[in-house]
Amino acid sequence: MSELIKVEKRQVLQEKPDQASLTFGEVFTDYMLSFEYSQEKGWHDLKIIPYGPIELSPAAQSIHYGQSVFEGLKAYKHDGEVVLFRPEENFKRINQSLERLKMPQLDEELMLEGLKQLVDVERDWVPDGEGQSLYIRPIVFATQGVLGVHPSHNYKLLIILSPSGSYYGGDALKPTKIYVEDEYVRAVRGGVGFAKVAGNYAASLLAQANANGLGFDQVLWLDGVEQKYVEEVGSMNIFFVINGKVVTPKLNGSILPGITRKTVIELAKSLNYEVEERRISIDEVFELYHSGELEEVFGTGTAAVISPVGELQLKDEKIVINNNETGKVTQELYDHYTGIQSGKLDDPHGWRVEVPRY
Ligand code: COI
């Protein structure tokens, strides 16, 4: 599609935030992309409108029954140009999430075109400081106002944009402290763990708050059946460096198929690391630590990027990984990953997608 999407202009543009003080996801740009779905018309009325509050029926199915899915991706600025990172992967995944919640599919190409036009309108909002980016949040939610439990007949898609700094605040490579959750579970096979649905994050908040209260940044989830095998962290997939090998839990239906996870696996292989996707139990992780074979642990996510893990606590045992410092492999992957994203390094895999000037 090459037609220009209609832009409903706002009267007054906002003042841009001070780049030096950007946090994660607290400031939003002037415009957002909006798209409507009805049973009669299908997806229609794609437009760029002023960012702001929306009208929603108090009976909307999304707020009662949780029919709501989202995505997260980023835009970067380099040499005055704006690039997206693997955006087609996010639209592929949003369709998988939509399918799981019985919501209507999106045209992936049209969505990518709409996103490029939105980001072009907002290109002056893309920050260029170290570790900064324009965080992009597509969301699709049910809007029909009826209380019967059935798939909604109406939906809305919005894409909102937020100039952001690091997810955990401060230095992106500051090692995080992770609590291994042994009471609550996040997902089970056959459920919605693989999909990026809003409810997965709601279900994580109690354990996350408990862990925060004990001084931890995040929880590490174990499998929902035996609570034995490592799955993922609240907002990241998890990786271990074991005897020089990069190991991560194999996707099993209850783990989110992270796009950063996929990228890091491809990147590690291209840097000649052996990569293993397999089941790994939490007991094995602790045993490997005691035998000196667990060299590094890190998490991956669009928001969190590549984030070293400095401490893991299981019940009353705490292990300190690599002296609570960023490991060599984590650093190397971080440098390559962020270098390709920001344009400082070549992009041999073709992951960057430039935003044209329309
Ligand atoms: C992301 O990494 O983009 C996420 O969606 C995780 C979290 C911020 C919800």
Characterize the structure shown.
With 358 residues, this protein is α+β, with helices and mostly antiparallel strands. The chain contains eight helices and 18 strands. The protein has helices at 61-65, 87-100, 108-121, 198-202, 205-213, 259-270, 282-290, 328-342; strands at residues 6-7, 31-38, 42-50, 68-70, 73-78, 81-85, 133-142, 154-164, 176-180, 218-222, 230-233, 237-242, 245-249, 275-278, 294-301, 305-314, 317-320, 352-354. Strands 1, 2, 3, 4, 5, 6, 7, 8 and 18 form a nine-stranded mixed β-sheet that branches. Strands 9, 10, 11, 12, 13, 14, 15, 16 and 17 form a nine-stranded mixed β-sheet that branches. Strand 16 (305-314) and strand 17 (317-320) form a beta hairpin. Helix 2 packs across helix 3. The chain is globular and about 60 Å long. Bound molecules: 2-OXO-4-methylpentanoic acid (COI). 2-OXO-4-methylpentanoic acid binds at residues 72, 201, 235, 301-303. Its EC number is 2.6.1.42. InterPro entries: Aminotrans_IV, Aminotrans_IV_CS, Aminotransferase-like, B_amino_transII, BCAT-like_C, BCAT-like_N, BCAT_family. Pfam families: Aminotran_4 (PF01063). Acts on leucine, isoleucine and valine. Its cofactor is pyridoxal 5'-phosphate.
